[in-house]
Amino acid sequence: QAEFARRAQRGETSDAALVRWGVLRSVVDGDTALIETQEQWDVITSVGPSVVSSRRGVLVRNRYQLRRAAPGTWQIATVETTPVIS
């Protein structure tokens, strides 16, 4: 919360774009599922019109725990993110 407050007070915005991703593993067990992905992001941070940080190729692995929400739909219950290259 403190970090969010610092960014809000500064007027900092972050624009993240998913560049590419792939599924590493998926396991479905009844009404739950585990999906592991590797994702590459480009992240630009600005304060007003000034770019204060530009990072390309941020690589993370995500582990999504899903649960069935309704017939034919899934809802993300939790996400665990592991940075690979930041």
* Beta-strand content estimate: over 45%
**SS class:** mainly beta
Helix content: 10-25%
Helix and strand sequence: HEEEE
Shape annotation: elongated
Q: What is the first-to-last residue Cα distance?
A: 22 Å
Compute the CA-based radius of gyration.
Answer: 16 Å
Total strands: the figure is: 4
Count of discrete alpha- or pi-helical segments spanning 4 or more residues: 1
Largest sheet strand order: 1-2-3-4
Residue-averaged pLDDT? 96
Task: Sketch the major β-sheet.
Answer: 4 strands, antiparallel
User: Unreliable runs, pLDDT <50, ≥5 residues?
Assistant: none
Give a quick summary of the entry.
With 86 residues, this protein is mostly beta strands.
Name the descriptors.
mainly beta; 79% strand; 86 residues; 1 helix
Secondary-structure blueprint:
Elements: H1 2-10, E1 12-29, E2 32-47, E3 50-70, E4 73-85
Protein described:
The protein has 86 residues and is mostly beta strands. It is 10% helix and 79% strand. The protein has one helix and four strands, in the order αββββ. The protein has a four-stranded antiparallel β-sheet. The radius of gyration is 16 Å and the shape is elongated. 0% of the residues are buried.
